[in-house]
Amino acid sequence: MLRATRLLTYTSSKRGFATVVDASKGFKVSAVDNGQPTSSVTVLLKAGSRYESKPGVAHTLSNFAFKSTGTRSALGTVREAELYGGVLSSSLSREHLALTAEFLRGDEAYFVDVLASFIASPKFTRHELNEYVFPAVHSESSAAGQSAPTHALEVAHALAFRNGLGYSLYADTQATGNITAEDVRELHTRAVGNPSNVAILGTGISTESLAKLFEDAFSAHKTASASAVPATPAVPATTYHGGSARVAAAHGPQTIFVGFGSTASTSVHALHALAAHLNPAPALKWASSAAPLAPAIPAGVHARSVLLPYTDATLIGVVLEGNDAGALKEGAKAVVSAFKDAAAGKVGKEELARAVARAKFQLATSVEAREGYVGVFGPKVLKGEVATVQSALDGVQGVSGTALSQVAGDLIKSKPTFVAVGDLHVLPYADEIGLNA
């Protein structure tokens, strides 16, 4: 109780985001300053894989981050960042590309200028594409292909959504053979040429200071004219399909994904509570959990719930890994039963309270990390919405048993998404675990 009181006080008094519009480019800027010794700035672009014109272009753009621009070379950027003690990184999701600088407090001007130079004047040279970018892309794609859980989620998205959100995050060798520097430039220009596609988030700095720094930085860089911005291709509305796939793999643990998706307007707060309810991870690593799934998940099977809310769709489920296919089958049956029980309103008051508390804690702790707050608040900032941790926590706190049952019931009315990766001689089919797929 003491911990919960402290957390609520902290989030209420210190955590908050205020959204403004940058006067020079129209990008939305949001930041929070809790007095920490380090700062970070993330530029979030609507340049995820769902927006690419060719397979793998978004992954390639992600690896072009912080290469040569109109004002600095890639080598110069790296050396200067190291002298400042900062870290530059990029990460890709199906909807967004995040470009991030993390640094000691007080070095904001330099790192904002680095980010602004890549936004305003990237060169996208052919020699960097072939010598540096493609090798990094191939390495990341190879590593993803060797990860059975990652492969399972990739296949699950392809089954669930087919196009758009179903496009892979990774570019294989065949895909990169068709990608040119101009393809990458086009995706970048489409994103930064429309202010509604860009959000700037910061920590350890005020919103007003961050907006002013970017305004000054953009004025120092030559940018493309509005006429040079290519037309944004129409992105069709997402449709959820679902389906079943079994993929042979000789490496990694046996892996199963069991989930459901939706494109309906669903309460994200209830989804968080449902994901927490389905999560069998114990509160103590060396002890069993009172979570409803824990007794039904056999020993030796690692399971975790996955919630992936997108702008116009949702995918939620459980990933199970293990070496014993028979145990995995029993664990997958338990997941299906848990979905059905939740839809039938068989979640007791104590189980609901546990799920809500766990969801709140997971949400609060996730936004303590940079990746978490960008993922949670970035889409809201893109819409121009004011976002706070407390409002998110209050929303989850208000989830009732009826709301949980409603969201689970709506999900299981759709076609399930089932993926098995590993030894197909022993892994189950969807109908063997209680799914009608």
From TrEMBL:
The molecular function terms of the Gene Ontology recorded here are: metal ion binding
Compartments where located: Mitochondrion inner membrane
Q: What is its main location?
A: mitochondrion
Q: How does it sit in the membrane?
A: Peripheral membrane protein
What InterPro entries does this protein's entry cite? Metalloenz_LuxS/M16, MPP/UQCRC_Complex, Pept_M16_N
Q: Spell out the GO cellular component terms annotated for this protein, sorted alphabetically and separated by semicolons.
A: mitochondrial inner membrane
The yes or no answer to whether the keyword Transport is present is yes
Q: Which residues form the Peptidase M16 N-terminal domain?
A: 32-171
Classification via Pfam families? Peptidase_M16
Keywords attached to this Swiss-Prot or TrEMBL record, sorted alphabetically, are: Electron transport, Membrane, Mitochondrion, Mitochondrion inner membrane, Respiratory chain, Transit peptide, Transport
Source domain of life is: Eukaryota
- Is Transferase a UniProt keyword of this protein? no
The record's similarity note reads: Belongs to the peptidase M16 family. UQCRC2/QCR2 subfamily.
Question: What is the protein's name according to its record?
Answer: Cytochrome b-c1 complex subunit 2, mitochondrial
Species, as recorded: Multifurca ochricompacta
- Organism phylogeny: Eukaryota, Fungi, Dikarya, Basidiomycota, Agaricomycotina
